[in-house]
Amino acid sequence: MNGGLSREQNGFRERVRSFVENEISHARADALDRGDAFPHDILEKMAQQGLTAVNVPVHYGGEGGGDLEVMILCEELSRRSPALSWVLGNVILYGNNIIGVNGSEAQRNLFLPSLAKGRLLFAFGLTEPDAGSDAANINTTAQCQDSGPWIVTGGKTFITGGTVADYVVTFARTAPPRYKGITAFLVDTRDSGFSFSKIEKLGFRGSDTATLYFDQVPVPEEMILGGPEGLNRGWSQMVRLLNGERLSLAACSLGIGQAAFDAALDHVRQLPPPAVAGSRQATEHLLAEMAAQLEAARALAYRTAWMHTNKMECVRETSMSKLFCSETAKKIAVDAMAIMGPDGCDMALAAQRRLRDVLILSIGGGTSQIQKNIVAKTLGL
Fold first, then answer.
1. Phi, psi torsion values for 195, nearest 5 degrees
2. pTM to 2 decimals?
């Protein structure tokens, strides 16, 4: 990476870290996991601190940040509670980023000022029971007759924020071609025909996940993502977002991995001195490996973010970052639990929660196997 983070970006990290320390206690993070209720109060505090505006352009009321700032935010939140990264993601990723990158000017003017203030929540409606890694295999359809609204019919599953979103960016088939026949609609969840059911999951509790149902939901033409010109361009719009999403998930992994490492290190430091010199060497070596793995993962992810910010080709690197950071954090979480012994398995402590949380990061946003496929393809294989 060219020179590392700027002074402003390092200052932003300190700002987010201070917010976490002052506003999100360990007890609050544990309660969020146990209760699994969307934390509207914490999101409001984030908005008051300007965190919901981080990646909104200044002229729409935002702070004008980009991928690096979003990564910093996701990493620091995830050190305390990765679910909060996904809670905020319903604003900064599925709202600010999608509308900012793919929205029409009318849609940017309509949504971005409210998103910057944390007053709207968006969800990303792509995954279906038969369209997971094969995302283009969607069965949700949208039809338009006699110049009326588009009628969306179908269902989505494993949708983050699906029970609380004001709008769902819903991908539906509007023409036969596999990739050039998909359109993204901005579905207002207040409209008739929309409903949902919550999914209980292992980790990231507090960030809700839902199955969504679209029973002939009417959507006006102006709510096609990008305006009427966005018809049948949903796939290309989605592809523009993939690099940023992978980097955000890599940052979540870094935050979990760092928290797991810190807890294991503190645990060992508090143990009484070993009776025999060198008898703790295996644990010390494991901690050294964990520290090195974290630094390597962080260097890869932030260098890739710098490449993306500077509009360099980085599909391979974003897949590498998502793959390496998630798998590294998973290993660190497991190793930390082993180092901590019984404390690692105590449901009253956070070590087990970090393992439950980190598992989804090698699945969501493209599985580790899909990331390997992408890297292999870029290698000419």
1. -150, 175
2. 0.94
